[in-house]
Amino acid sequence: MKYFRAIAGPAILVGVVGVLWLLWGQLFTRNDSVQSTTPIKQADTGEKQSVLEISLEARKNLDLISKAARPRTYWRTVVIPGEIADRPGLSDRGVTSPAVGVVTAIHAFPGDTMRPGERLVTLRLFSEYLQATQTQLFKARQETEIVQAEIDRLSDAASTGAISRSKMIELESEISRQNTLIRAARQELLTRGLAPRQVQQIETGTFVSTVEVVAPPLRAPDASSPLPENEEVQQISLANDQGIAYEVQELSVELGQQVQAGQLIAKLSNHKMLYIVGHAFKREAVYLEQSAQENRPLEVEFAEDATDHWPAMDQSFRIRHLANTIDPDNRTFDFFVPLINQSRAFDEQGRVFLVWRFRPGQRVRIHVPVEKFDDVFVLPAEAVVREGPEAYVFRQNGDLFKQLPVHVLHEDRRSVVIANDGVVTSGAYLAQGSAASLNRVLKSQSASGQQPGVHVHADGTVHAAH
């Protein structure tokens, strides 16, 4: 017990000395730290940091590129939704039965491509009228031959006066009447879908019991074409390089089905000529009317359009006409913009199929120009960052990016229009995106006290590199 009392006193003394030593070190270290950081804070508060340093690797990670800013003219637009639709009279074409008959063969099915004159279906004629027309043609041809033989036999007698001249006139009139019947019957049979070769066979007594319903010929874009005047689509052929003119969109008959004259057999489509149909509200009518009157070009965004797999579109979009009725359900009216489609063909087991770039029903956004800005800078929306009322862009100089305050005249979801007031000079390289990321990096560097690219003046002040 005496032994423990003897060592307790020195142990307590050593502990007290150790605690005092630790408190003394912390006190003097804190004072030194405050004294060492105070000059840096004073230096930092001298000027707001507006320059940050971004390495090449960091720019690649951000996918950051810079482009020279050039002043140009910009049109403010309003965005109107729309969709792609078939163009009436050009995109779809119905094929009907020429006569009453029964479908005995089908030669083309939905999805198949066709050239003009290729067979769609084969019909076994079941029309008394068509049979009667064939009989009439054959009888008229036979009567013509008989009367002509009579004229040849009596021509010598008529020249000598053995028979009256009125008899010859009567026979010649009969020839004219029979020729008229022949021409009428020929035209009727050709209209019903018979080929000229089949009509010649009927005249010799070989009647036709079946008829081939074929794809109709294309209408040439001429003055009689339904295409509107003064429109560039007049010069566009509906057939592609392989001569394909149609695609079977719908087949309306089956094998063994009896069809009537004029009944729809198939619907053929050609999506070369389409419409972009915009759905606008009445308050937007004034913008559309001005654009149509001044023939202003529109900009169209196509939803789900893989631009990398198709050639660049070399066409301008302009309003053709405005609808003069309002949809009672959604209270919108339509306007129509012509569209020339693109296609590709591929072979599958000897058949050729088409793939169109744009399809009816595909959604679009139509940008209609309404206000003009002259001599302004236009940047992508991602190139500008906002902090309250302030807006900033970043000018690149090597690895350094300087924050510049700018005056925004207009912005939408894609572009920002900046005033050409001298803050941004023509030819300056501005970051085209990631402005929000650059702004966060700038704040981070400012908070850490790191000043990239700085230099010290003779009076001891610190400034960012110009």
Summary, kept brief:
Helix 3 packs antiparallel against helix 4 (165-191). This protein has helices at residues 2-44, 56-62, 128-160, 165-191, 196-203, 285-294, 435-448, and strands spanning 51-53, 66-68, 72-86, 92-96, 101-106, 113-114, 119-125, 210-214, 246-251, 258-259, 264-269, 273-280, 299-302, 321-322, 333-340, 343-348, 351-356, 363-380, 385-387, 390-397, 400-405, 408-411, 415-419, 429-431, 454-456, 462-464.
Helix and strand topology:
Layout: H1 2-44, E1 51-53, H2 56-62, E2 66-68, E3 72-86, E4 92-96, E5 101-106, E6 113-114, E7 119-125, H3 128-160, H4 165-191, H5 196-203, E8 210-214, E9 246-251, E10 258-259, E11 264-269, E12 273-280, H6 285-294, E13 299-302, E14 321-322, E15 333-340, E16 343-348, E17 351-356, E18 363-380, E19 385-387, E20 390-397, E21 400-405, E22 408-411, E23 415-419, E24 429-431, H7 435-448, E25 454-456, E26 462-464
Antiparallel strand pairs: 1-21, 2-24, 3-12, 3-18, 4-11, 5-7, 5-10, 6-9, 7-8, 9-11, 12-15, 13-18, 14-15, 16-17, 18-23, 19-20, 20-21, 22-23, 25-26
Structural features, described:
There is one protein chain. The protein has 3 domains: 1-45; 47-91 and 271-466, Efflux pump adaptor protein, beta barrel domain (Elongation Factor Tu (Ef-tu), domain 3); 94-266, no CATH class. The strands form 7 sheets. Strands 3, 12, 13, 14, 15, 18, 22 and 23 form an 8-stranded antiparallel beta sheet that branches. The radius of gyration is 43 Å and the shape is elongated. The chain starts with a helix and ends with a strand. The chain has helices spanning 2-44, 56-62, 128-160, 165-191, 196-203, 285-294, 435-448, and strands at residues 51-53, 66-68, 72-86, 92-96, 101-106, 113-114, 119-125, 210-214, 246-251, 258-259, 264-269, 273-280, 299-302, 321-322, 333-340, 343-348, 351-356, 363-380, 385-387, 390-397, 400-405, 408-411, 415-419, 429-431, 454-456, 462-464. Strand 22 (408-411) and strand 23 form a beta hairpin. It contains 7 helices and 26 strands. Residues 27-46, 221-236 and 454-466 have low confidence and may be disordered. It is α+β, with helices and mostly antiparallel strands and 466 residues long.
